[in-house]
Amino acid sequence: MPRVTIDFSSFSEITDLPPADRELLAAATTGLAHSYAPYSNFRVAAAARLQDGTIVMGANIENAAYPMCICAEPNALAAAASVKPGMPVVSMAVTVKAPGRVLSAPASPCGSCRQILSEHESRFGHDLRLILRAETGPIYVFDRASDLLPFGFSGELL
Ligand code: THU
Predict the structure, then answer these.
(1) 71 alpha carbon – ligand 1 mean position (Å)
(2) N or C: which end of the chain has fewer CB within 10 A?
(3) Number of neighbours of residue 101 by Cβ within 10 angstroms
(4) Residue 73 a catalytic site member
(5) Does the 9-148 domain belong in CATH 3.40.140.10?
(6) How far is it, in rounded angstroms, from Cα 132 to Cα 107?
(7) Which segment of the chain is annotated as a signal peptide (predicted)?
(8) Ligand 1 centroid vs 60 CA: distance in angstroms?
């Protein structure tokens, strides 16, 4: 029977990461302050590195009409498209914080975010490296975001 496997790296210490990933995670942690999450109390921030090294931020922005909540990851991609239109995001660090709790497991991008990140890769023909970490605990690194969405819907079918 065919099987799908996902390759990723797990690091236990931030100091085990390459400096560029460490810098991006630190930026994401700073970005948690920009989250607007009064309903879930679950803050998410994403720091995106563009191909020229520019780092932009996105955080989750919630809404009283719950389905209107916008995740941190697409907000970071929108920020990237705003400052450097036409330039790919080559890596993204995502971190989470829930006031009053210490989160120790990385939060994986939701299905919708995976779809958006995957299309960013196919649109630009460039891998988007993902670095995930909670406040403490392991750091997961995926060489390309689309690895998180096997059998995803693709524009090639249209
Ligand atoms: N959230 C993100 O920002 N990214 C994800 O990939 C998953 C969920 C946000 C949406 C909402 O504001 C909060 O986390 C709880 O679902």
Answers:
(1) 5
(2) N
(3) 11
(4) yes
(5) yes
(6) 7
(7) none
(8) 6
